[in-house]
Amino acid sequence: MKYTRITALAAISVAATFSLTACGSDSSGTDSPSKGSSSSSSSSSDGGSKSEGGSGSDGSQASNAKAGSAEDTEAEATANGAAETGDKVTFCKTEDLAIDATDAAPDEESGRINITMINRGSTTCSATGFAGVDIKDTDNTSNPIERGQAQPRVTTLKPGDAAVFNLAYDIDNTGNSLSHPTNILVTPPNETHTVTLKWPAGAGEIKGAYTDVQVYPTHTTN
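The structure assignment produced for this chain is given below.
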């Protein structure tokens, strides 16, 4: 009888041990996947956050770098343009220019006088614009010449460079012209000092009046 009780107690003890072992195994099995899942999610979240943040940061910096580069290039180009055509380039002075007039008529109907100005100074200067021109007649009157319809071109002259402008008119082939020019009075663009040139020999007579003659802006000969 005593043996039977001992055996029963032993059996109960073994059963309890198996039950506790099974519970511990189930608890361990439940916790392990949970921790793994949590770690994976955290890693994915951190990795995604770092990746997205890094990409966004790099992209923003790259974008700013490109924008800055473009702005710097534009500013540099503006600075270079100012250096090339800036305020430091003064207008050519009459005293520094060698000025001459020649007949350059393309045919017997169209009269043209080319007036060339060569920079004899030691520095670069600007001859951009219209020169002031008067034509002196045999009766000693001076007649101002009107500007032709043309836009001035940038005309910058280094020492030794030449600029040219012309007078244009129709030639009178009747021999009855009322104009008898003797001299051309030239005031370079943006200057006040005038030079007197002889009317070119062989130039055709002017058809109409001096008001029919027009002066055009300077340009380089290059």
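Interim note for the steering committee: The first helix runs from residue 2 to 85. Confidence is low (pLDDT under 50) at residues 1-85.
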